[in-house]
Design a protein that fits this description.
2 domains; two-stranded antiparallel sheet; 11 helices; tRNA binding; BirA Bifunctional Protein, domain 2; alpha+beta; 7-stranded mixed β-sheet
Length: 344
């Protein structure tokens, strides 16, 4: 048995000497030292040895195992060093190279204008209210004093999904939903930002989807002068302290009286130029006192409470603020255009 162990040692060391692969090394470890390996098979015959021979053969077996394990461990370390060196060579980093410049993004001009408007009105005590973009005919029209077949519905060419579901044409439905949720409590003081949809042909000043912000105030003794003062403060904070406004009579089914609001031209300051067609004024939004029927449908007694509402297109505000002449610039992902606003 001693001779068998010595022969096994020589055989194993001869095979291990030429190993050049980790997988082959593991296979040889199993072949010679595994539970069913060659060394284990030989040592199983120790049961037939005498008591005097067993310690001697056991010692020789341990020496053979130790010699084989020593070579295997050395080969394992050799392979690990070679793998590490190869990875270092393949993954080396030239620390002398200049760093890669991180591209800094910016807020989209429309989002920036929305944020500015929200901050101004939050500073005046308003809260932000939101609602669904897919709206019912009731909230989009009927609750705003626009019953079915009302001629004023033609003012807004609507995307209908079904007879009762549509893409909202304004953010006014949020006002109605807010009034109903308040259950007659006052004050109501909200702005409603969001996307709206109308069947318009895209051109320099129109889009089938655009952003709108509407405002609503309800309480006791709310007057037209409160509306004018609110809009004047907003315009001066948005366009500068010298900005002035004027109100012209108009018609909206959900307000009475109604008015169009003009602002002094942001280009010439009211002196007259090509932008304002020499008038000194630019039309900017619509407003008015909330119609008594709208108050009733919102759950308020028009004999006790009054309110005002206004609505503006965010794109219109942004075009005036930044001197942009085509609404399509906001949506065509032109990086040269958008980079102008990266630091605004």
């Amino acid at each position: 048995m001693k001779e068998k162990l010595q022969a096994l040692r020589e055989e194993a060391l001869a095979h291990l000497r030429d190993v050049a692969d980790v997988q082959v090394l593991n296979d040889l470890r199993v072949k010679y030292l595994g539970k069913k390996g060659a060394l284990t098979e030989i040592l199983r015959g120790m049961g037939s040895l005498s008591a005097e021979e067993r310690p001697v053969i056991g010692q020789v077996g341990n020496e053979v195992r130790g010699a084989i394990e020593e070579v295997i461990d050395a080969k394992q370390q050799e392979f690990q060093k070679a793998e590490t060196a190869q990875r270092l060579q393949a993954e080396k980093v030239d620390v002398t190279l200049p760093g890669r410049k991180m591209t800094q993004g910016g807020i989209h001009p429309l989002n920036k204008v929305i944020q500015d408007i929200e901050e101004i009105f939050i500073g005046m005590g308003y809260q932000i209210a939101e609602g669904p973009e897919v709206e019912t005919d009731y909230f989009n029209f009927e609750a705003l004093n626009l019953p079915k077949n009302h001629p004023a519905r033609d003012m807004q060419d609507t995307f209908y999904i079904t007879e009762e579901l549509l893409m909202r044409t304004q953010t006014s439905p949020v006002q109605v939903r807010t009034m109903q949720s308040m259950q007659g409590e006052v004050p109501v003081k909200i702005i409603c930002p969001g996307k709206v949809y109308r069947r318009d042909d895209d051109d320099a000043t129109h889009s089938f989807q655009f952003n709108q912000i509407e405002g609503l105030v309800i309480g006791e003794n709310i007057r037209m002068s409160d509306l004018k003062g609110t809009l004047l403060q907003f315009m001066q904070e948005m366009f500068g302290p010298d900005t002035q406004i004027r109100l012209r009579p108009s018609f909206f089914p959900f307000t009475e009286p109604s008015a169009e609001v003009d602002v002094t031209c942001v280009k010439c300051g009211g002196n007259g130029c090509r932008i304002c067609k020499q008038s000194g004024w630019l039309e900017i939004l619509g407003c008015g006192m909330v119609h008594p029927k709208v108050l009733e449908m919102g759950g308020y007694d028009p004999e006790k409470y009054s309110g005002f509402a206004f609505g503006m297109g965010v794109e219109r505000i942004a075009m005036l603020k930044y001197g942009i002449d085509d609404i399509r610039h906001f949506y065509n992902s032109d990086m040269a255009f958008l980079k102008q606003f990266a630091t605004i």
